[in-house]
Amino acid sequence: MRPTPELPKRLTDLTPVVIVGTSLWAVATVVLFFVTDGIWVETAFSGLVLGFIGLAIIAWQRAAARRGSKSAQRL
What we know:
DUF2530; 0% strand; membrane; DUF2530 domain-containing protein; 75 residues; transmembrane
């Protein structure tokens, strides 16, 4: 049986997905701040915060992979 080929980096890199999602939450937060108040603004802000947490985790994993940590995901 032949070994499975590696996927191209553009198909495995999560950074563009997280950046686009975080940007959309930022736009939603600004729009909803001026249009309404309450739970919708809080929800959009929570999505924005979680997007930044996701970016921090991606950066943390990449730094660990560069250091050669055994537990780091190879990207």
